[in-house]
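Allow me, if you will, to draw on your knowledge of protein folds for a short while. The matter concerns a single protein, recorded as an amino acid sequence and a row of backbone structure tokens. Kindly check, if you would, that the fold set down in the tokens agrees with what the sequence suggests. You will find the record immediately after this paragraph.
***
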Amino acid sequence: MKDWIVLLIAMTAACVVVLTIVVVNHRRIGEDDDPSQTPDVMEYMTMMMGVIYAIVLGLAIAGVWEARGAASETVRQEAQALHEVSERVQVYPGPVRERIRADVDSYVTYVVRSEWHHMEVKGELGDKGAVLLAQLRRDVTAYEPKTDHEGQAYQPLVDQVAAVDDARTTRGEGAGATMPGVVWFGLITGAVVTVGLIFTLQIRRTGRELLLAGLFSVLIAFLLFLIWDFDAPFGRGLSATSAPFRDLFPDLFT
């Protein structure tokens, strides 16, 4: 059974149980009952639903913000690992050193100038990046160190290439939207219900009440937009950027 079907059944069951209890309890009330002595729960229920929705919004914002921060850190780690490869290969002979640095430069140039736009549009990595990274790995691992100094640098270089691969994989996993559709269903439905509850409080057309109602609706819309904007760590306005690559390899983008 699909998750959304289970969710629908659970929500329906909860609603039916509550309404059944209310109806049964109402039938048991005697004719001498005085409703005026019972506190009005409408305002209390409205307040509680607003509080619950505020908690959900806060959790959603925290989740997408954390995903964006993780995406930025992943990009920094990938760029830093490539920079380490380019610097540590200094101890290798000239032809080997230049070949590995050329591999690094080709990969960085492709990521910044081509793959980044592909991630923003498609929500996935480009195929060429994996090919360029595989070439870098082959050139790093194929060289056999001739001296102790080169031997000491060999394993750290291999580890840095593995770190690049790991960061690239993580970047690919976070290239698309991070919020499941069922969460968006709950956020939008909750917004409609929360804003709709304004009309249960007998709002009047005074300037102050209309202003508060408008500001409340604008706030809900803004928070939903903020979640939507953060939801794609690489694809929208407040997204992770390729700045770490540009900062560590300035000669490639001058």
